[in-house]
Specification:
By secondary structure, the protein is an alpha/beta fold. It has two domains: 144 residues, Aspartate Aminotransferase, domain 1; 245 residues, Aspartate Aminotransferase, domain 2, CATH 3.40.640.10. The chain has 14 helices and 15 strands. Strand 2 and strand 3 form a beta hairpin. Bound molecules: pyridoxal-5'-phosphate (PLP). Pyridoxal-5'-phosphate binds next to helix 5.
């Protein structure tokens, strides 16, 4: 995609010379974004169908969010929580009223928020459920993705995430995703919580069988364990509901949100739960220099305002339906299955997805493969109808071969 010694070549050479190669990016060097579109160093325009792994759900450089951030940066951005700040209370209130929880605990990245939820669940298990000391168990699902910290990769089933990083933290058990009986069988009086993605994103947009979330919640109720929904990727409208658990009317005991809570501008995550759980934390138990800072709070609050009237959610549902129906109608020899909810769509191919992503990039569409053969389609939620049709035309061509 680059001419020799172009700005693209120079940027790639520098990055590869000085940076640890933890990703295998497509070789486009993005310089600017505007809504659903991004522009590379050569001035070429692409439709962003990854949205920074669903962290840029409201489009790039969303003017309302940029204005909120700029205004707050001009006042004060960082205080630490050694002092109170004027933005945090309103943000906490907005988080609780938007999602229907009693308390919120802000963090920065998704993995940090998952770690925080695990700490909260263990604390609840010891101090409320009275699980014997140091023996609490958290049950997770096969093929999960909850981030990259040592504790979190320790309960991943993906060899590449774990290889050469052990030893790992004990206290985690794995059951197959979508298997409520398996979950029941794995539970004991030492079970603190079940941690689950309502749709597995990194695993390839895997939607569990209908009723699984509800059955898992019932199992948690029977064994007095907490149901923790990792809504970092699925939350804030990505699937057409505020939380993906809402599709089954399931209210988790703990919900973890992140990614687009920062509006594509800044890392903002949060753990949401009842007072009985988050109220257990005492000063000194947990912390983060950056979490809950006024800039994060101002951006997070502006993000929640974008979701307030439900109009965006309705649009996501309609747009998602149109894309899935059209994709299912493609007579492509390489499409095995189309799945997803709202604007979280996975196209399972019979062939490797990477060459299709490269073909799409040349046609002005940025997608990223996941798990080899899945093309993930997660455009900004602000995608308009005309652009959706433009995208479908390009997908039809790219999937022909
Ligand atoms: C479901 C889920 N949980 C946790 C994370 C980790 O978030 P972060 O990369 O912000 O640490 C991700 C990121 O992709 C995710 O999809």
């Amino acid at each position: 995609m680059a001419t020799s010694h172009s700005r693209t070549d120079v940027a790639i050479a520098l990055e590869d010379r000085y940076g640890a190669r933890i990703y295998r990016p497509l070789d486009v060097v993005l310089e600017r974004g505007d809504g659903c579109w991004v522009f590379d160093a050569e001035g070429r325009r692409y439709l962003d169908c990854l949205s920074a792994y669903s962290a840029a759900n409201f489009g790039h450089s969303n003017p309302l969010l940029v204005a909120a951030a700029a205004e707050q940066m001009g006042k004060i951005a960082l205080t630490s929580r050694a002092f109170r700040n004027a933005e945090l209370p309103g943000f906490l209130q907005a988080l609780c009223t938007t999602f229907g929880f009693e308390m919120a605990l802000p963090m920065n990245t998704g993995a940090e928020a998952v770690e925080t939820a695990i700490k909260a669940a263990r604390k609840w298990a010891y101090e409320v459920k009275r699980v014997p000391a140091e023996s609490a168990e958290i049950i997770v699902c096969g093929n999960n993705f909850h981030g990259r910290t040592i504790a979190v990769v320790g309960f991943s089933s993906e060899p590449a995430y774990r290889r050469s990083f052990g030893p790992f933290a004990p206290g985690f058990k794995t059951v197959p995703y979508g298997d409520a009986d398996g979950l029941r069988g794995a539970m004991s009086e030492r079970t603190a919580a079940f941690l689950v993605e309502p749709i597995q994103g990194e695993a390839g947009v895997i939607v569990p069988p209908d009723g699984f979330l509800r059955q898992a919640l019932e199992a948690c109720r029977e064994r007095r364990a907490l149901f923790i929904a990792d809504e970092i990727q699925t939350g804030l409208g990505r699937t057409g509901e505020l939380l993906a658990c809402d599709h089954e009317g399931v209210r988790p005991d703990i919900a973890v949100v992140g990614k687009s809570l920062g509006g594509g501008l800044y890392p903002v995550s949060a753990v949401l739960a009842a007072r009985e759980i988050l109220g257990l934390f005492q000063p000194g138990d947990h912390g983060s220099t950056f979490a809950g800072n006024p800039l994060a709070a101002a951006i997070g609050r502006a993000v929640l305002q974008l979701l307030e009237d439900g109009e965006l959610l309705a649009r996501v549902k309609a747009r998602g339906r149109r894309l899935v129906t059209a994709l299912e109608g493609f007579a492509s020899p390489i499409v095995r299955e189309v799945r997803g909810r709202g604007l979280m769509i996975g196209i399972e191919l019979t062939t490797p997805a990477r060459p299709v992503c490269e073909r799409l990039a040349r046609a002005g569409v940025l997608c990223k493969e996941t798990h080899g053969t899945v093309l993930r389609l997660t455009p900004p939620l602000t995608l308009d109808g005309e652009t959706a049709e433009w995208l479908l035309a390009r997908l039809a061509t790219a999937l022909e071969a």
